[in-house]
Amino acid sequence: MENLCSRWSVTLIFFIILLTSIHLIYTQLFLHLTINFDNIKLKKSPQLPLRFNSDGTFKILQVADMHYGQGLITRCRDVSPSEFKYCSDLNTTRFVKRLIEIEKPDFLAFTGDNIFGSSTPDAAESLFKAFQPAIESGLPWAAVLGNHDQESTMNREELMTLISLMDYSVSQVNPFVQNLSGQRERALLTGIDGFGNYNLSVHGPYGSLFSNFSVLNLFFLDSGDRATVEGRRTYGWIRESQLNWLRGFSQADQDEHGECNHFGGSPLTRKTPPAPALGFFHIPIPEIRQLYYQKVIGQFQEAVACSSVHSGVLKSLVSMKNVKGVFIGHDHNNDFCGNLDGIWFCYGGNTGYHAYGKVGWVRRARVVLVELSEKEKSWTGVQKISTWKRLDDELSSKIDEQVLWDQNSEK
């Protein structure tokens, strides 16, 4: 009997020790390995699709070449000696915030060299700082890469992936396509060069006949960084795979607009006009050099730094028949608009204070205003596209206002 009691005592002690050990392991180890869902941050997204305002307008702020480094400790370039001591990346941040306050844009387009890779040991941190004004504004925004963004700790695919995941960003790594299986899920298009090729549709105002249709397309292209051609270094260029996608998208969009559409279940049917398109990329195409001998609006102060490869970008854009303007960066001391075969090519000017410039030539940014026409008390297609520049001077001067396209001029 004593042996039996002893066995039970040992067994009981063993189970007590076992349960105590399990409890300690659970409380000290397992709980630390579990995910704390309270700290998970979800991306804040803007209301989509992009849409014209009730007054029939849609305003875009183009921000070119911020060249952001590490913030306060990154010094300005090409400013006056009196400005230099207290000038840093924060001047760029203040300028972009001021632009947003003054212009009240509906959309922000960043056209590359958003960060200056060689000036930062942490690309992600610099990106968040560079895009801080856009994120804090709560406005939808999109970006492409330039030739300097990838020179730090992230490659171009990683950069575009991070940008696409930031708050209020509508950027895409590359175009989405429907799965061939017929399922509703979409997948990234494969076989296209670069990262940051995509289109954004802007619909008509709520309550208009075109509230469910795109009346303006904004396409973004990756113009690359550097390349070697026949043993010589040159800048990147837009490749044939990108142009094939763009032409295909444009044709599909125009075919869709050419069909008869029913509005609100009404027996009335109409054909919607092809949606005009605006393009955004960083490195200029070689043909822009021709504008040196033509009339331009703005300043042509710097040689066009482009690829030695003529990849047929201009020919493709002209063939699409709906491209009205293209907005670029890269050459900081150029801020002009010039017309090539019916398409306006406009530099954004130099927004970033860590980017090279000219002493005495103030930083600037471009604004694009798209206006709808009104017919029978309802907004219809795009009527006019105009642009101007806003300077970072004491008066926030507005200069070089011009009309890029007017529907009436084509009639």
What does this protein structure show overall?
By secondary structure, the chain is of the alpha/beta class. It has a single domain, classed as Metallo-dependent phosphatases (Purple Acid Phosphatase, chain A, domain 2, 4-Layer Sandwich). 25% of the residues lie in helices and 26% in strands. It has helices spanning 2-33, 81-84, 89-103, 123-130, 132-137, 156-165, 240-258, 313-320; strands at residues 50-51, 57-63, 107-111, 141-144, 176-178, 186-188, 198-203, 214-220, 226-229, 232-235, 260-262, 269-271, 277-280, 323-328, 337-340, 343-347, 364-375, 378-391, 398-406. The strands form 5 sheets. Strands 1-7-8-13-14-16-15 form a 7-stranded mixed β-sheet, covered by helices on one side. A 6-stranded mixed β-sheet has the order 4-3-2-17-18-19. Strand 17 and strand 18 form a beta hairpin. Helix 7 packs parallel to helix 8 (313-320). The longest helix has 32 residues, at 2-33. The model is unreliable at 260-270 (pLDDT under 50).
Short characterization:
The protein is 25% helix and 26% strand. By secondary structure, it is α/β, with parallel strands linked by helices.
Outline the secondary-structure elements.
Elements: H1 2-33, E1 50-51, E2 57-63, H2 81-84, H3 89-103, E3 107-111, H4 123-130, H5 132-137, E4 141-144, H6 156-165, E5 176-178, E6 186-188, E7 198-203, E8 214-220, E9 226-229, E10 232-235, H7 240-258, E11 260-262, E12 269-271, E13 277-280, H8 313-320, E14 323-328, E15 337-340, E16 343-347, E17 364-375, E18 378-391, E19 398-406
Parallel strand pairs: 1-7, 2-3, 3-4, 8-13, 13-14, 14-16
Antiparallel strand pairs: 2-17, 5-6, 7-8, 9-10, 11-12, 15-16, 17-18, 18-19
